[in-house]
Amino acid sequence: MVVHCNLVKQVTLWFQVCHSLGGGTGSGMGTLLISKIREEYPDRMMLTFSVFPSPKVSDTVVEPYNATLSVHQLVENADECMVLDNEALYDICFRTLKLTTPSCMDEMEFTEAESNMNDLVSEYQQYQDATADDEGYEYEDEEELQEED
């Protein structure tokens, strides 16, 4: 375990966390995970891809509260936060990708739209990484990475 942790400390320059701030898991557990990673690796960059809730596609009334309470943790522990709008993701799925209205196949399975929304966020993450590589962001160590900020 110690060897594995030392390897993570030597190799990892930053952490990326993708989560939704509307539900309890993404907002509560996600921000707890971010704060614990920050405690364990204070010298590493923390990037988040945070999907914020929207009133038009809201499932529950507590989504705005979950998001509001999570923002403080993001401000304290994330170095960079990519803000994604849930309504915009739905619009891309339905208008651009021409998906039909989602229907639940099973309680534990993603609907077609949710699966495609996850794919969209994943593509955005890959785009951000590729853009950083194309612009020549190669760092010898974490001090150089921190100096860029």
Structural account:
The protein is of the alpha/beta class and 149 residues long. It has six helices and three strands. The chain has helices spanning 2-11, 24-40, 63-77, 86-96, 112-134, 142-147, and strands at 14-20, 45-52, 80-85. Helix 4 packs across helix 5 (112-134). The chain starts with a helix and ends with a helix. Mean pLDDT is 76; it is low at 102-110. It comes from Lupinus angustifolius. One of its GO terms (molecular function) is structural constituent of cytoskeleton. InterPro entries: Beta_tubulin, Tub_FtsZ_C, Tubulin, Tubulin/FtsZ_GTPase_sf, Tubulin_CS, Tubulin_FtsZ_GTPase. Pfam families: Tubulin.
Structural class, please? alpha/beta
Q: Element order, helices and strands?
A: HEHEHEHHH
Poorly predicted runs are 102-110
Number of DSSP strand runs: 3
Mean pLDDT: 76
What is the percent of helical residues? 55-70%
What is the correct CATH architecture?
Answer: 3-Layer(aba) Sandwich
Strand order of the largest sheet: 1-2-3
Major sheet: 3 strands, parallel
Number of helices: 6
Query: What would you call the shape?
Result: flat
Radius of gyration: 17 Å
CATH class: Alpha Beta
CATH level-4 homologous superfamily: Tubulin/FtsZ, GTPase domain
Q: Under CATH, the topology is which?
A: Rossmann fold
Total number of domains: 1
Percentage of residues in DSSP E strands: 5-15%
Distance between the termini: 32 Å
GO molecular function, one term: structural constituent of cytoskeleton
Domain Tubulin/FtsZ GTPase: 2-136
Protein name: Tubulin beta chain
Biased composition (Acidic residues): 131-149
